[in-house]
From TrEMBL:
This is DUF1501 domain-containing protein. Pfam families: DUF1501 (PF07394). InterPro entries: DUF1501. It comes from the Bacteria.
Amino acid sequence: MADSAICCTNLSRSPNANSVDEPCRSFHRTFHPFGFGSMSHPSLLDRRDFIKCSVGGSLAMGIGSVVPAALCQAADSVPPAGERILVVVQLTGGNDGLNTVIPYADEAYQRSRPKLRIGSADALRLDDSLALHPSLTGIAELIDDAMASIIQGVGYEHPNRSHFESMDIWHTCRRKTESRTEGWLGRYLETAAGRSGGDVPAMHLGRGQQPFALASRNIPVPTVQRLEEFQLRGDPTGSLSQLLRETSSIDDSADSLLGFVQSNTESALAASDRVRKAARGYRSDIAYPESELAEKLRIVAQLIDSGLTTRVYYVQLDGFDTHAQQRDTHAILLRQWSDAVNAFIRDLQQHDHHDRVCVMTFSEFGRRVAENASEGTDHGAAGPMFLCGGGLKPGLIGGHPSLTDLQDGDLKHHTDFRRVYAAVLRNWLETDPAPIVGEEFEPAEVFA
């Protein structure tokens, strides 16, 4: 098929892993109500072929070639109203935490960064020793409103300064000497199966490769670039709805599979309808900045308000590998992130969702304390994490790492990142963190 298919059930393979029985092939050729393949009248499709196809494969729904996963999941129960949501913002490349949360009063900072240091007159003061980068006015406003926390000195033992390996450690909570087939959020999705009310339990928004953090054995996660790509194509009230009405009249109470196919198909139609209405009818007085990250978060706000029961959203902002001429690039990136997150939280406030959404921002490592000869900074270790939203202990959490007691020129961490994950899992997503991050990582005290 020219277009990709979105499946509502897991694909059951025959002994020949690539084979699908003839009725299923016939179904995929003739019944594609959402915009791909040729369209035939539903009455031409034998109902038993429809059901048999669903046994061997799945009910296929075209949503666009960039969405490589399921629109709907089978669910045994609908989650309670107001289910909490986690939005992950990944700052890719290694954000310079030392010029993000600035120890402006520390003489060691002044000596280490003669060209890159941020002066106290420009920085946004948090207290008598620490300040935010001047680009972070949006985050500063959230801190003033008790809606943002900064966890200082976050990292892990024996830090790895490779982008790929360090990111894999953050994504999986495992070293390369251990088995790494699932991400930490993927493991969470496995434990929370059935709590997404029939909608996708997680979603990645962006153009790049899906983060390893979302990988799991059994829970597919879609990657979406634009809101329109999450909508089923064509008229969902047409031929498929007619077929659902016809099959519902079959007096076959023992045919549980038919009921399964009907319920999952109807869930997909309902989700698509909510997303379509969200795109058409969403209203907000919040002016999002013109950036790709802001657009992603605006879409997330619309999806949350549409009624989707998706629990996890994941977005990325790239460009933080600032080895040379860091000052201007870093300032632009921090402003993009700060302004986008601020607009997102304000939008959630306007629609009464802010108390059930937590935005977690991280980067794979910090940068060296000393600037390099190219007016940039090289790969480091510990850095700050940020949480924004409701239910937090606002402001600074933990002390700033020493700038004189270093590890190979890097800041030493005092809070393992898995302790922050554990807090998010236990105190926000209400699940046991031990099977996901490890029993030895007690949740950090970041929630009120």
